[in-house]
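Thread title: Can someone regenerate the structure for this chain?

I was given the following input by a collaborator and told the matching structure tokens would be attached. They weren't. Posting the sequence so someone can regenerate them.
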Amino acid sequence: MIEQPTTPDAPAPAPAPTAQDTPRGGVAEGIFAEVERMTAGGAMSKSDAFEDISRRTGRRAGTVAANYYRIARKRGVALEPRVRRGAAQPKPQGSKGAADAEAVIRRLEDAVKDLATLMRSQDAELARLREQADQFDQLKAIIARNA
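Best answer:
Regenerated them for you:
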């Protein structure tokens, strides 16, 4: 648990309840009540409340938020729909789809051309290595005869 320093003016932070201190589901209920108290009247955002509780209790902010929202859904609280980060936006219908397909085909053609170029250079490299191996074999034979 992370302990926060206290000043004479500030109230001491609440200790994190343990499984023995609270009945099953009691921690989540307590988190819900505390977030509701902290955000009442727009005094603080829910995210800030989750972070504050996280710092005081040593729980991760995501865990605090999950507990809050679990109880909120259980109680039927009206919640805003979740906005997922990095979610793809729906693409508009129309001629853009054909342009996208053409772009994919062009990229695919370029990739095939690059692959063909690499294969040709690899073939040339293999021919060079085979030639060197033949020369090495000839040198070994000369050395063996003179030894």
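Helices lie at 26-39, 46-57, 61-75, 96-146.
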